Structure of Phospholipase D/transphosphatidylase:
Amino acid sequence: KTKEIETKELVSKKVPGLKIHVCSLVAFDSPAGEPWMPVYIHSKLMIVDDVYTTHGSELRRRLWDLHTKGQGVQDDPEEAFKAWENIIRQNNESRNNKLKPDAPLVEFHYTETSLTDFD
């Protein structure tokens, strides 16, 4: 069973009423034709009894502006969600065409079965 879990690729599933983007960051200056360089994200997340969640890292507009190249900074969550969706789609296309990223924000996708620590 462990081997099956280690070799199985997780695929996202649509859940009615639940909309999320799971994202990561890459270096905006990642060159075209090369693998994009991932950016380490330090975050503090606490989940209590599977009910209460708090996120302790900065949620500054300046950072959202930087990570989305000015495209994803909205106070309206619905508009922000749509903007992030567009950025993710653009970056997926850019990655598939071996271009540089349009913005540092990318869809989180990790298919490796091993962990490394470069810190």
